[in-house]
Amino acid sequence: MRNSLKKLKEENLYKTITIEKLENRLKELEKNLNLQFSIVTTLSTSSLLSDTTAQVLKSVSQALSLDEMAILLCDDDSGRLRHFSSFGLSREKQDAIFEPGEGISGITLCDKKTHLLERAGDHPQFKHWKIKTDEYNKKTFLAIPLIDKERAIGVITASAHAIPATYQKTLESFAALMTPIIELQRTKSLQEKNFFETIKRVMDFTEALSPYTSGHSYRVSRYAARLARELGLPDRQVEIIEKGARLHDIGKIAMMDLVKKQGKLSGIQKKIMKTHPLLGEQFVSGFDFLKDAIPIIKYHHERYDGKGYPGELKGESIPLPTKISTVAEVYDAMTTDRSYRGQHSFRYAVAQLKRYSGKQFDPEVVNAFIRDKHSLKEFTDKVKKESEDLLSS
Question: How far apart are CA 164 and CA 161, in angstroms?
């Protein structure tokens, strides 16, 4: 009787343990499914992978109790690994660049194998993130290659006090999920970059048909980017402003006869010319990667006092990128020759910006632009020289 009872207890204990293991396994599967669903949902609703990858890494890190996660991508030209996106990494760590075979990430890129290091800081080849720190001495570090058609395109890294085998498998599945998405985005980005370069060449060519517009868009984009940095805007915003300013006059391609005309335009011609922002908007709206530039293209002739065109915005309703580009555009127009007058002096241009601050321009933007006049004058001379070199090359 006692033996039967003992056997029954052992069987019940075995069943309980088995059930607990199954329950834990189901919970793990549910967590992985929820995680992958979250990743796919986040990525599918975004037009820019770079804007959402950090959110995905944050979700993964929190789900798996990781301290840091990063994606390093291989540069096509140099072969080096550079930071693409991360969660938990300081700016100093994000700046680290690895040669192929350098550090665990570089080794992972070359041998295309996953590397798991316990007490990673003690490993002689660790070298992450090329800064002196003891924080990894008691941590586990994982590096997983991103393999696309047998070619390593980058590495995913993760660190935590412990990374169980089940978490490693989850992260390897994550790497397999992310690889085709990243590669597709890289291909798409390259195509967009090449198309944008083509548009810029077309604009430069059409502007060069008139000595009064030659190099205008290039100079405006440089002034706008400088002003955006003066206002402390993040790099991503600076890129958008520089791109929008570069294309702000793209609608004028449809009216080059008016652009090339010497002397003042007639009343009817002025009305036609004022349609160029709307024509520009129509052109770029067909390209998803240029949509961020639409507010600059459409509204760069709006005024702070509401007396501009197309006459839809005024004051604080005008987006900051547009206000920046407007100051840059008018400044370049004043400091270069026009068909109806010669160029004004630097001092005159600064005085006019002050005069129309609060009327045509946002006062805060004007103040930032002319805050350091000596530096602005030097930058203006430099940009004019760059513009001349660009057109002569």
Answer: 10
Cβ–Cβ under 8 Å, residues 51 and 189:
no
Tell which residue, 306, 312, 349, 359, has the closest CA to residue 328. Answer: 349
Average confidence score pLDDT of the chain: 85
Tally of helices (H runs) and strands (E runs) in the chain: 15, 5
Q: Around Cβ 334, how many Cβ atoms within 10 Å?
A: 19
Contact (Cβ atoms closer than 8 angstroms) between residue 221 and residue 299? no
pLDDT band at residue 38, thresholds of 50, 70 and 90?
low
| CA–centroid distance for 299 within its chain | 23
Strands 81-87 and 115-117: unpaired
* Token pair recorded at residue 45: 């609703």
If one counts the domains in the chain, the total is: 2
Which of the pair, 8 or 107, is modelled with greater confidence?
107
% of the chain surpassing 90 pLDDT: 49
In this structure, of 24-28, 159-163, 168-172, 202-206, the range with the lowest mean pLDDT score is 24-28
Look at residue 353 and tell me whether its pLDDT is greater than 90: yes
- Find all residues with CB under 8 Å of 231, minimum gap 6, and list them: 320, 324, 364, 365, 368
For residue 381, give the CATH number of its domain. Answer: 1.10.3210.10
What burial class does residue 156 get, using C-beta atoms within 10 Å of its C-beta: 0-12 exposed, 13-18 middle, 19+ buried? Answer: buried
Is 235 within the bounds of a domain?
A: yes
| Structural contact between residues 114 and 168, judged by C-beta atoms closer than 8 angstroms | yes
Same domain? 131 vs 233: no
The structure tokens 């944050």 sit at 58
pLDDT digits (tens, 9 = 90+) for 110-123: 999 999 999 998 88
Rounded to 5 degrees, what are φ and ψ at 14? -60, -45
